[in-house]
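thought: fold this chain, then report.
action: predict
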Amino acid sequence: MSESSLVKHEVFTKWAKEQGVQICKVAAARFPGRGLGIVATDNIKAGDVLAVVPVSTLITASLVSADVRRKLGRITVHGLLAAILTLDAQRPKSTWQEWRAVWPSRQDFKDTIPLLWESQWPELLPPGAKEILRGQIRKSDKDFKLVLKAFPEVAKEDYLYHWLVVNSRSFYYIIPGMMKLPPSDCMALCPFMDYFNHAETGVKSPVSLQERSPC
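observation:
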């Protein structure tokens, strides 16, 4: 990790702790050719709690004002979260400025996500991946049409970037009182915990939704 990149992660980690996030025995790291993830800073035993994140720090649909909800109409939670992030980015200072600094760059997404590839490259994908891509195109286009209708000033490139941030960094989360949502709409962005959201294969690292947990 370059010195400038390391500083961004240190600043973000300090900000996360100020929001009440507890971090134990781990730190953020960049792995060459593999992106961001977590490294151990101390011996870790099975069952150790590595991070505790207050619900108040999550980015969820509950943060969206009634006025914005009314304007967007029947949009997916995925589309809604992307919309509030896009609108937040237009402010003089983003609410999540320190967190944004450690998200993947637009170039990172262009290099790795078929949704942003030039038209000839997706044709090289295997059939299963092509089907996933077609679904992403349908879903993101539908979400953007609703956002553009409500907020004509929003550029598609800006919106799609935040749509991909939500797509790649969200955790499964059910907002109390919203139990009837389809699984694909049970989403939340979780500060620092999204560093754990990277693995070459499936892992068994449980995430527990509790009011308090010692770290």
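thought: worth noting. DSSP finds seven helices and six strands in the chain.
final: tokens above.
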